[in-house]
Amino acid sequence: MKIVNWAIIGTGRIAHTFAQALAGTEGARLYAVGSRTLAKAQEFADEFGFEKAYGSYDELVRDSEIDVVYIATPMASHYKDTMLCLDNGLNVLCEKSAALSLNELDKMLEKARSKGLFFMEAMWMKCRPVYLKALQWVKEGRIGTPEYLKADFSNLVKYDRSDRLFAPECGGGALLDLAVYPLTFALDFLGRKPKELTTYAHIGKDGVDLSNSITLKYETAFADISSGFELPCNNSAVISGDKGSIVFADWFFCCCEVSLYDNETNLIEKREIPNEVNGYEYEIREVHRCLESGLAESELVPHESTRAVMKIMDECRSRWGMKFPNE
Ligand SMILES: NC(=O)c1ccc[n+]([C@@H]2O[C@H](COP(=O)([O-])OP(=O)(O)OC[C@H]3O[C@@H](n4cnc5c(N)ncnc54)[C@H](OP(=O)(O)O)[C@@H]3O)[C@@H](O)[C@H]2O)c1
């Protein structure tokens, strides 16, 4: 197996989790880390054993030993950080939500295409074994025709204006941070083109949504989605069809258990697939597979899937009148 030289841009919360996954994944070399501050980059490099530490993102992208960069900065920085990497000939795995808007995302994808480089949103849920198992059950007709889907992702987050979650200038709000998961889930199981959308949001004093509710209507099905920072939920997900239903364990986007029931709620099959590292190893392996095969796009996280979700998030924000600075 070819060794892949990984670099990370941004040394925040998820960068730490991802670095742990890299350290436990075969074929991944913890090569470089870039921060806006050299001391932070060095501290991060020392903690995880990265070989190089850079005190700016500009310096990092000039390192030609890098195979792929994982972008772990706030949403509002994804566009410029991705463009910086692609302009310097580097493949990109970019955290969710990949951009602030479809307009930004399309420019990023066009740049990747024109440079012949790999780009993938770090939608790790789509690479996880129980998620793929559930998709397979639906494809095999095990629940018949899907008719109803429900998914929520809510946490109780203490207000802190300095946290990116509440900061419009960072691309804050529950939509791009949390709803991106249940929306991706709905579009994967019911289709990328819902016929109608209804949505409500509670917009906080800083101008970003603190909670939201989204209903997607399809020809023969509908999806009921909610997310927010204002109350803790069990973050469940269920898909029902005329022959049965699929129920994910709590924290559906990262859980290790999924169950199939018939339409009298008898358990038919249950899959428990424990993480091998911390759950992020599957998306890392998918990036390795794509790079090794010379693919510019992942089949598990295709560009069109990221685009379809982004389009719906644009529509929600437009209905709510929620704009990010400079939009
Ligand atoms: N996949 C997942 O499970 C998951 C979980 C949480 C978050 N995320 C995503 O990962 C991204 C980062 O989230 P996070 O929770 O790790 O954020 P965070 O803790 O705030 O860290 C973000 C990092 O980005 C860098 N940065 C660059 N410009 C910045 C700015 N203007 N303001 C603040 N930080 C800036 C900073 O690193 P330096 O100072 O080192 O440059 C900072 O530590 C988001 O897109 C989020 O949606 C994904």
Question: In words, what does this structure look like?
Answer:
With 327 residues, the chain is an alpha/beta fold. The protein folds into 2 domains: 4-123, NAD(P)-binding Rossmann-like Domain (Rossmann fold); 125-279 and 308-320, Dihydrodipicolinate Reductase, domain 2 (2-Layer Sandwich). 34% of the residues lie in helices and 25% in strands. It contains 9 helices and 14 strands. Helix 5 (102-115) runs antiparallel to helix 9 and helix 7 (174-190) crosses helix 9 (303-320). The longest helix has 18 residues, at 303-320. It starts with a strand and ends in a 7-residue tail after the last helix. Bound molecules: NADP nicotinamide-adenine-dinucleotide phosphate. NADP nicotinamide-adenine-dinucleotide phosphate (NAP) binds next to helix 1 and helix 4.
List keywords for this structure.
9 helices; Rossmann fold; globular; 327 residues; six-stranded parallel beta sheet; eight-stranded mixed beta sheet; Dihydrodipicolinate Reductase, domain 2; alpha/beta; binds NADP nicotinamide-adenine-dinucleotide phosphate; single chain
Low-confidence stretches: none
Q: Helix segment count? A: 9
Helix content: 25-40%
What is the CATH architecture annotation of the largest domain? 2-Layer Sandwich
Bound molecules: NADP nicotinamide-adenine-dinucleotide phosphate
CATH class of the largest domain: Alpha Beta
Task: Please report the total strand number as a whole number.
Answer: 14
SSE order: EHEHEHEHEHEHEHEEEEEEEHH
Q: From the alpha-carbon coordinates, what is the Rg to the nearest angstrom? A: 20 Å
Mean pLDDT over the full residue set? 97
Largest sheet features: 8 strands, mixed
Instruction: Indicate the overall shape.
Output: globular
Compute the separation of the termini in Å. Answer: 44 Å
Query: What fold name goes in the CATH topology slot of the largest domain?
Result: Dihydrodipicolinate Reductase, domain 2
Strand order of the largest sheet: 8-9-10-7-11-12-13-14
Provide the β-strand percentage band.
25-35%
CATH superfamily of the largest domain, by name, is Dihydrodipicolinate Reductase, domain 2
| Class of secondary structure makeup | alpha/beta
How many distinct domains?
2
